[in-house]
Each structure stands twice: as C-alpha cells, then as structure tokens.
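Box S2. Input/output pair 1.
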Amino acid sequence: MRRILAADIGGTNSRFGFFELPGEGAPVLAGVVRLATTGAESFPALLEAVFASGPPFAARACDAAVLAVPGPVVGGAYCHPPNIRWDIDLADAVRLGLANAVLINDFAAQAWACRSEAVQGARVLQAGKPDPQGVVAVIGAGTGLGHCALAPLAPLARRGPSCAGGRGGWLALPSESGHAAFPFVGDAEAAYGESVRRGLGHPYCTGDDIVTGGGLRRVHAHLSGEDLPPAEVGARLAEHPRTVEWFARFYGRACRHYALAVLAGGGVYVTGGVAAKNPALVEHPAFMEEFRLSRTHGELLAAMPVLLNTNQDSGIFGAALAATQMLRHSAC
C-alpha cells in the first residue's frame, strides 16, 4: 500500500495529513497533525516538528508528498510566501527524506479537494445540473480573493489498473484573477469604488480590495460610518442588512465572472474564511441573483452548481488527491 504526505501550509496555521492509497480507491486519511506556522523558525523546522509527532508520520515512509503553499510556486519546488517570514524550498524536504515531493499553490489544493470527500458536506446554494467531467471553479475570499480551476485531462492512451481506469485525471489551473479590476454597476457603486480607490491610492479597485475581509470592512464603513475590523463586522451583520446585501452582490458578481471565464460546468465552489465564518454573505438572495445575472448566458449560469465549502481540512484532501494522480500517472 502506497503512502502520501499531504500538507496545507498557511500563513498562520499548517495542516499535515498522512494518507494511505489502497489499490484503485481514493486516499484514506490515517492521521492529521496541526501546527502553528508562526511557531516554526524555518520550513525544515516545520517538517521536523511533523515527523517528531510519531507514527504514521515519517519522511521515508512516504511514497509521495504534495505540499500546498500560500503563494506562487516556481518549478514545483520553490515558494516565497508573502505572509510567511521564511522561504519554502523542496531541497530542504529532500534532505529530510521526502524524495518524491512537489509544491502546489494552496488554491490548487482547494480545487483538487472539490473532487474528494472533503466537499461532501458543502452547502448547496444552487443545485444546477453538474457535468462530472466539466471544469470546476473555486473562488474564495479571505485576506485576498483566490481563484483556481480544475480541468479534465484527455484520457490516457495507455490504460492499466494503475491509471485510474484509463481516465486522464485533472489539471489544476491557478489564477491571479483577484488582482484584476473589479467592475462596479450604477452610480451608487461607482461612488463607493471611487472612494475606495482614492483611500487606497490605487489606479483602480481589484477583487482583493472589494471581495475580501478588508473589502467587508470597507463596504460596512461606507454604508454605516463604522470602521471596524472584519471579525467585528461579521459579528454584527444581523444588524446591518445593507452591508450583507452589498457584499453578497459583489461576491456573486466575482463568482459569475470567474464561472464564465472557465465555463464551470462542473460547479462553482465558494471557499475561504469570509464566507465560512459569515455564510449569510453568500446565502443572501442578492448573491445568487447577481451570479445568474447575464444578458446572454443566464440559462448557462442557472445550470451551474454553486456550493459553499466550509471544510477547514479541504487543503490536505486536495493535496492528497493530487499526489494520488501523480503516483498513478507515474506508473502508466
């Protein structure tokens, strides 16, 4: 039985899952270690803490390791995360015994998770008509606005028992769409956007400015005059329906644009801490009304499943599924 180390390394906390891969089945979680990223002095120190936790975690017990990291990945082997004080270099992991390892972006792991058991408990915002082989879109508001698509690969020419039944599997396509200009509609929104732009001193507003925790703070301050941290705004949403409605509309618009960009017939999964902690922001009617609003593709959008994934362990399940494909394709 092959064994996988799957990690979701965050700016504040990190999760490590040890999975076993039985035959043709899905990876099975055998153990989890959760550590404070900020408590480690380096990437090797973080790994050493994992391996010191005892069985089943051991570097040389792993046939493959996929580590999801919060930043752009260079060559599958290096990342300089913007919110961690140290770099992540696979050369350090190899020195500790992880011979067959790769880095992926954290939202790539979230995209992979949408084809795993991690999303079994996801809340359905729109049932739609899912295409099992369609592109999956993941979008999540947190500190930034993350995006990734999961696209089906063509079937493999060589088929065998280790090749997932001859299917080509999936390809994760990370995106930096959160840094694209955010569109405002109508005079009231335009006035808000200009206020944000001037306040930030930017040439234009991006999704990261509007559909994030910081964006929740900004829209609440604009509508109520209260400048509060995002957590405090979230705690008072029931008292401020206009804040909920405006943010829900902005979030629905961001989801619509990405769903159309990748033709997400496999579904749109909303993730990230903002909606996980404040589900009212995507359960408000304005969210789905905005998502389906299109002069030309309303029916297409209405057919796309839209779900809210609040599983905090999604990243390790997604990384494990990516490692599963890596192992099985290497055997083909």
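Box S3. Input/output pair 2.
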Amino acid sequence: MSDRLETAREIEALLFAAAGPLTAADLAGRLPEGADVAGALQELAARYEGRGVVLAEIAGGWRFQTAQDLAWLMTEERTEPRRLSRAAQETLAIIAYHQPVTRAEIEAVRGVQASRGTLDVLLELGLVRMRGRRRTPGRPVTFGTTDAFLEHYGLAALADLPGMAEMKVAGLLSMDLPSDFSVPDPSLAAADEDPLEEGDTPQFHVDFLGEEGA
C-alpha cells in the first residue's frame, strides 16, 4: 500500500471518529511527520465522490456528511432546530455580509432599532461572536460570524456566502424581506477594529418563549 493510500486510510479513521470538522493542521498533528495530508484528502474526496456519504470542506475543516441529494432521507431523524425570528434572520444576514459590524450599523441597515434579545440569541446559539472594538469614539463592540455559522450552513468560508435568493432558500433570510433589503460583499468590509479586552464578554438576556421583537 502506497504512503498516500495509507495516509488516506488514517485520515478516514480520524474524520469518522471526530465530533466536528478537522482542519489540515489538525490532521497533520495526529499523523506521522511528513504525511501528505493534502494528497490524501484529494484521494478520499475522489473515493467518496458520488456516494451516499461524501467528504466536505466545512468552516476551514473536513468532515464526512450525507450527500446533499440524499438529505431528504434524514428528515425524520433530525431534531427540529429552534427557528430564528425574522429579526434574528435579518440581523444574522447583516452581520454575515457586513462584518465586522456594530449594533448601530446593524440598525442603520435594517432601519429599526436592534433589540438586545435578538443579538443575545445569536450569541448564545454560537452563530455570531463579539470580534473587537471599532476605532471610533465610544469604541463600540463589533460583531462577526463564527465557524459554527459556517458549519451550520455548510460553507467552507465566508467567500462562499450565497446570493440573496440562495440565502432565502437556505433559511438565512425571510422569504418576505423588504424589496430594498441588500446584502453586500463581506470581503469589502473594513476591519478597523481593535481586539477585545479582558472583561468584554457577552451577557445573555434571552427569553426563549418570546424573543420575536425587532
């Protein structure tokens, strides 16, 4: 057996047992020195192409998952996730496409005041995080998405964020959003922020029975 095939076999075992995606660096750290991780991943991807389980790159890491065209088979086996309110969907989309973004900037895009509960829900669900503080008067906190956001929506990186139509189908946006709602390219966002300081941690005030406001 060639070195690449053996490495592919070892990676297959690691990914099968992992609780979440593993990056190439994670895999290299567990394999013998000099292992051809990139080549082995290509070997595995080709081997599983067209099968019921495929190798997918998610949030910068790799995992095995059900082939997309067979997802309907899993419907009855899934636990129904908590549905986000329209306000939370819009806020999440704005953060994804404008990050790093402050609360005031979210409100400016949405045209309404952002409720504390909406952001807290997204923070507690792990879909967004506090990134830093904007280099402007008052040093407001900036928000951005997390790897959990990428993993939840099946994205390898932010560059793979879909257009508005695809976002609606994926559940990222409400189907009845205002016609003037826009989602710009996140790669154009300015990163004029400083790292968070000690003590800059989110405080959750989530009402799980009634968080449906703006």
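Caption for Box S3: The chain has eight helices and six strands. The CA atoms of residues 106 and 213 lie 15 Å apart.
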